[in-house]
Structure formats: C-alpha cells, structure tokens
User: What shape does this take?
Amino acid sequence: MQITVPSLLRIKPKAISKIGKYLAQKKCLQIALFWGEGIQELLGETVKISLENSEINIISEKVWASGHLEDIFEQSLELAGSKTKAILAIGGGKVIDCCKYMAFSNQIPLFAAPTAISNDGFCSPMSSLLVKGKKRSLKTTLPQGVIIDTEIIQKAPPKFFFSGIGDLISKHTSIFDWKLSFKRTGEYVDDFAVMVSFNALENCVNYPDKDLNNLEYLQIVASSLLLSGVAMEIAGSSRPASGSEHLISHAYDQIAQTPSMHGLQVGVASYAISYLQEQTFHKVEKDLQRTGFFSFMQTNPLNKQEFLEAIKLAPSLKENFYTILSEKNNISRLLKFVQEDEFINQMLK
Ligand SMILES: [Zn+2]
Assistant: This one.
C-alpha cells in the first residue's frame, strides 16, 4: 500500500501572505483558485499580491459554495480541459473537501489553506460530500501542501477552535473502539496510525499554556489535527480518528433541529462513550476540563433529548463497524448514564 502525505507544511503567523512563494517552490505556477464563502473579501488582496509577486498564473478563480458531487464533477471536467496544474483552496471545510475531490479526480496537487481549525478534515483522505442529496464520505487523497496562518485562525470565533479540540479528544474513544474491534472481530489495527493519532492528541492536551491568544498553542492544535488526518491515510480507514462517538455525532446531525459543530458534538459524545469504555473515562473528562472544552460547552450546550435519541440511532448508521455500542445492553446503560450524570448534564440542556 502506498500512502501520500503532504510535503509542504507551513503553520505559522502570516503564512497566507507567502502563499505564492510556497506554490512557486513546488513549481505549481498555473493554478485554479477556489475560495470559501466570505473569505475572498477578507484575504483576496493579500493572496493576490502574494501570487503575483511569485508569478503564479491564476487560470480560473471561483467562490465555491456547493457540496454536491454533481457540481464537483462538472467543475472537475472544466479543470481537466484547462491548463491548471494545481488547485489552491482557501476557506473552511466545505471548499477544502470539494477541492480535495477535484484534485483527486484530476490527479493534480491540492494546496489547502484552512481559515479555521474546527476538525481534522482539512488533511484527511476523505471528503464529506452530498451524493444525490445525501451526505457521504468519499475517498480522496491528502493535500500536497497545507498552509495555515495562525493569525487568521485566531480571528475565527472560539466555537471553531473548541470544535477542533473536541475532535482531537475523541481519539481516546476512537482508538479504544478500534482495538475493541480487533479483539472481537479480528479487524486489523495499524499500530503506527494509533501512535500518530494518540501522539497528536497528547501534544495538544499536554501543552502548558492553553491560551487562545497564544499563537504557538494554535500551531500545536492545528498540527495535531493535521496528524490525526494523516493517521487515517496511514490506516487506510477513518478508524484512528473516528469511533462510536462519531456515530453519535452523525446521528445528532440527522436528528437535531439545530445541529451544533462536528467537533463540539463529538467531544460531548466522547465523554458519554468513555463511561462505557471505563479505561478512557477519567482521561476524557480530564482533557475536556483542562482544554476549556467543558467550560465552553456549559455556555453552548447540546439538546439533551436529541442527544439521547442520537445514542439510540447511532449503532445503525454504519454497517460492519464494531464499537463499544455494539456490545449487549450498552445502549440502555448509556441512556441511563446520560440521564443521570452531573458532568454531562452541564454540557446538555
Ligand atoms: Zn471528526
């Protein structure tokens, strides 16, 4: 099996103003530029100047808002008929996911510049897209370059940051589920992917100065999310980054009237799942507290009734995916726990 990991990584202040230089270093001189909604207004001028200074030729430029696979196919065909040698995607999860898929189908490199770090999707081998109106996770390749300007991600509202934290803390429970599946079903576990994923989490939660104004901390969190994405590429599946806590979050997306952010849902679900796993219980609670995730959720709680419904729906969402929720009586045990536990009820309303 061959894996491809990003060879250009720039996670630092003012990285966006050097984007032209980075593309030139990789000899990607003819690009298609895609913006997430509202991003061009903020960064358009800085990026244009940087690309011009490095003599990067913008073959096409678009604001990308659709998550539909049909639109992505159409755009991919357009790219295939042009002189585009690489794609540059600047913005949030949607534009990066779509561009990952376009780059993959055209076999050209992608340079991703996420403007928020709300989950580990910006550097994962999967794109979450709408196929005939239904959300699906499709196989793609990782970006060749990831450029994260820590001064820009600092300006994003705190919910984006805490969503990223929740997605990282969920590695405790996802890795447990993966190993449990090995014990029960013989599913192959890639030890290296486990190590990468777990170290990514540890780097973040053990960092001493967890202040959102500290750009070095943001750099650590962004790198950890990136490594979590790379772990999925190493494993050849989402297992090192996604277990039963992710199933609950996907179910909550379907059930909730107003779903919250992916990582916020996943973080709360991780705590719930850790009760069943026992081994991860105090670790998850400790990490939710010391990262400030718990305090954030106290003021931005999920809906309790919908969360309980999501637990019931979760195991049916993914076939042949063994987790702690697959074990006998665990759904009813978990429902009782969520009804009664004081800590989780401060993150639910
Ligand atoms: Zn996730």
